[in-house]
Amino acid sequence: MPGIEAVLFDYGNTIVQYDRPQIEWIHAELSQALSRLLAPVEPMVLGAAMDHVCVQPLASPDLREYTACEQMGLVLRKAYGDSLLLTEEMIAAANVAFQDLFVSSIKVEVESVEVVRRLSRKVRLGLISNYPCGDSLRRSLRSTSIADLFDPVVVSGDVGYVKPHPRMFSIALDALAVPPGSVLYVGDNWVADMLGGRRAGMRICHFRGYTSAQHPEELARSCPPDFAIQRLTELESIVMP
Predict the structure, then answer these.
(1) Model confidence, pTM
(2) Is the pLDDT of residue 217 over 70?
(3) 6-16+107-239 maps to CATH 3.40.50.2300
(4) How far, in Å, are 41, 65, 113, 223, 224 from residue 194 at the CA level?
């Protein structure tokens, strides 16, 4: 088996936590912002609308990513119903508020920074993330001082498709110019990450450190990972045995 020449990472719930604590904080803060900008809306109502909309691209047959403003428009229509006549300016303002909150919500553990810095001295590192706004994701990388560690950075909002669409992985692999069998892909989501990475020909590592979501046994049997880890520090013995 060839050695590992590069590592590609998922972002949310792999490099950084982006799960219910961050998401529910955003729901609460954004409901206040929207109540000032547009009209009052309860956090639970807004949260239910956002939870519904954010999974739609992954559930769609073509895996097409929505633009950030498309997603926000769907969220606002679901949250407010017919009680608010939305304009493009209103949707854009709401999206700006949301993206600023997203960037603010992202924190990276010191241990994770240290691990990826050590790995970056040995192999090339890249990032493949499902998120509708590439600019905001890169802002979050800069805000956590880890932007210099990943090249390429492939974001669904820039590509127009979400993982596990093969385009997300082929762009990253083309940029690395490394054979897929020499690349390790690390992610938390079974369908987007494990299945997508396996189909792209990479070795796959299931990261279980941030999310407790359980995956159906048939998925695990159909696409067993090469490795499973609880902390990113475990990668060092895999990548640099």
Answers:
(1) 0.95
(2) no
(3) no
(4) 37, 19, 23, 7, 8
